[in-house]
Amino acid sequence: MNLFNDHKKLFWASSALFVLLMLFVAIMPAINNQLNNAPLPGSMLMTADEEAGKKIYISEGCVGCHSQQVRNVEMDKVWGSRPGIAADYAGMHRISFWQNTATLMGTERTGPDLTNIGQRQPSKEWHLLHLFNPRAVVAESIMPSYAWLFEDKDLADSLDVIITVPEKFKAGRKSVIVASQEALQLVAYLKSLSQVPLPDGTAKPEFLYQTSKKEGETAPAADNGPDGAALYASNCQSCHQPTGEGLKGAFPPLKGSEIVLNENPQDLVNIIMNGYDAREEYAVMPAVGKNNNLKPQEIAAIMNHERTSWGNNAKKVTAQEVEKFLAAIQKQNAVQ
Amino acid sequence: MWFFRKNRWQLVTLLSFLSWQAVAQAPENSVLYKGTDIGVKLLVFVLLGLFLAYIIKIIISLSQVGGTLLKKISFKVDKNQISGLTADQIDIMLKIVTKTPGPAPAVKIILPALIIWLWPHFSNAQTTVQAATRENILTQPGVLITFVLLFIPLLAGFLLLISKISTLLKKYQRSKIQVELQSIADNLGNEMFYEEVSVLSDRKKALLFQLSQNELAGENIASDEKGLLNNIKIQHGTDIFPVKKKPIPRPKIDPKLTQLILAFIASAVLWLVIGTTIGEYVGIKFVAPDADAISWLSFGRLRPVHTNLVFWGWATLGMLGLGYYVVPMVGNGKLYNIKMGWASLHLINLSHVLGTVSLMAGINNGGGEYREYIWPIMLLFAIGLGLSTTNYLKTIAQRKTKEIYISNWYISAAVIFLPIIALVSYLPFWQNGIGEVILQGFYMHQAVGLWFMMFCLGLLYYFLPQQFNKPIYSYSLGVLAFWTQILFYTLIGTHHFVFSALPWWLQTTAIVGSVGMLIPVTSGTINFLMTFKGGWDKVTNSYSLPFFLVGVIYYFTGSYQGTAEAFRSTNLIWHFTDFTIAHSHITMYGIISFIIFAGIYAIVPRLTGKEPPQIMVGAHFWLALIGLQFYTIPLMIGGTLKGLSWGDARPFIESVVLMGPYWLWRAIGGSMMWLSHLVLAYNLYKMVYPSEEFTVKEEVFKILKQKADLNTPLIKTDHEPI
To answer: What is the complex's ipTM, to 2 decimals?
Structure first.
């Protein structure tokens, strides 16, 4: 084979090697996965609104900063209760005649992973305000504002979803700020994002690289417990704010709150664990504890942070007490 | 053994310091010591063993000093030996002056002792900080590298100690020899005879003979009667900006081809300026997220505009433009079809106009990186590219040379592969579910490795030999790199999705392929650097070679970094972080863009016969290079910290806050890079449309010529009219 002098032989030889390898590492595995994976039994079809919301998510290029994949490594545990598997993406097909399939797995995490955002943050009001200006809820956020998904109206219709924007972020608008249909669809899509549980009897794939706890470490941990401030930042802060003051008309303050400061904090445990939707003037509180699998000692740490910060001064609770409250709450719920 | 008796106190001090160091290190480093006990013990044993072996060797050599050494030195004056002496030596012999040796200099033991004494302090200070941070840190590659780096000064200190002892011993040896020398010198003087003295005097005269320095030139004053010398530089001294060599005029290129190449390059530079203006703005948004709230300018929409324009606009058109010069040139033939080239250019440009507008309007293909253009727009691009492919392949087919030069191997492979890659990645048959992700990994990495890298290597194989005016170091290495590049690069796409839901074996294949990439990269780098060898002086007086050099260096470091990033252990820290962004800029900018910059400066002056202002080429080079450092280094540091923060399960927002300063540095570096592109655009303008040069000499002669034409002849002379 005289590759040096015969261009045809050279072109064919290099192309053949390339195409062969391409079949082996791209086309065959892709087809194989396409044929051998089906959506999980528990997964639900998207509604029209959610579908439309996904298209907005795509056209705004959200995938540039937000991944949608829980890797099977310990550090990804915060984004879902189990690692992602091929079946999670199996139901995804071509979006339209013009556009390819969008698994939206992403390669960057400038913002948080959104695989499970629907469970982690199910509050529509929060999402809308966050989209209008992310810094209204998370001061340090660098996410773009999607203000063009909202309309200014002098008078809102009865069906309009009005969002209460703190004065600072209104940018001089005097009128009522109303979510457009696109904004609502995008939020519907975000709320639909949640991990589907594996069918009963299926073993969960494991998270790798677990940080094994050593003897030396558990001893001080028992004294101090988990870091309440960090847990508060991860789980509560985006609504109730670092100041504990909440946001007027959206999220209630914890500073000076009766429920937080109560001598018997069973209600507080209940709300953290199972959510709360009793007050018209505020958004729905999701079941943070349940959704994020918080353990009794973690709940205790969060409660103690809330009960002793921002001028709050109440008695600290222990993990054992929280466990007792949880048992009582479970009993109560069972009776109802 | 006598040595030990004489210097025993120094030795005792030395040893006591050594042992004190060993004792002092053990308890304070206990955390470190437990974790790596075998390794550390082994190291200490090896070092001690080496040290002991050295001491023993010295002792043995010392015991031999008295007997053998002096035999080599003793000699008699005879004719053969006189020819080995210098005039000064002979002079001394004639004078028979012998000097008594001075007292041996004081033994310097303080410095090595000080180093040994201080060493535990340095090493303790560094190791205790690290060991305290985390339990598993000792197994992390970055930390291991750090340890290696720490070990280097330790080794240096050890070597310094050995060399100090060695000098000490040598001085002692000398002092012994000196005594013997004394007696030889005494004997020399005493045994001298008259004949020998006359031989020596003759020899001295012969050695001192000198030419008068004007044997050839004579006494006449030089004059240039044949007019051989032109524009003699009278001023001497150092230039702040050294004058670069003018490009050697080449055989004329077809003016139509010249136009085509310039059009490609001009389009490329235009997309570079637009694409990086957008990139710059997008970078600023990391620091100032509320810079605007216009949907067409939002981050998510502009990011793909930036990446697509610099990928498929700037780099692709720039390479194709240079390819239109190189492909016919190395085949010693003509371009197959110039019109086809123009059609290709217009289609690709059109695809970018449409693509940019559609992306900003929010129309994209579904979010896969670098394939954000929807298929009708990408089809325009692919047809344009296909035209160039056909053009190149037909040009190679009708070459005049028998062999296909290695450049055209690389370039032809690149232009064949990219249409296949684009087609396969846009066809819908294997894109459902996770299949889309497999194709995405394949697509984005093959586009990088089998298009940009492959093409640029082809360009390097032409330009480096051309610039140095000598053949490439090794043709075979080039061929090896060619096949291994195809073999390994095709496999590595999935390393962008390590730990994801993709098949585990596919991830592993990709990682193995990434390691395999070391073969083509190493052979390529050796090939290029060995071509540089012997021509380093040319780098300083050329304005394209520095760009090539940067390209080659980044080819090595960028590619090795890519391999390092592909490992599972490093993926844990760096994946999803800004480290990836730094890596992509090191490769796409440091390698690809620098090679294209170099190519532009290498051929455009040859095509147009006009040169860019030198100082501006320098400005372009330094702004781009320094800007790239400011861009990438902070992002790598910040990315690592971000990954560690995630590993520590800190709240996510902390990782956003900690990146703040690093994003600011990125914006600063990005601004410098952006500025350098404006300079490039200016330089290109200068190379294509230079301003009318106004020089006093030429203007004066123009007036004189007009006068001469009006009234012939002003004065009758024997000279030709000017």
So the answer is: 0.85
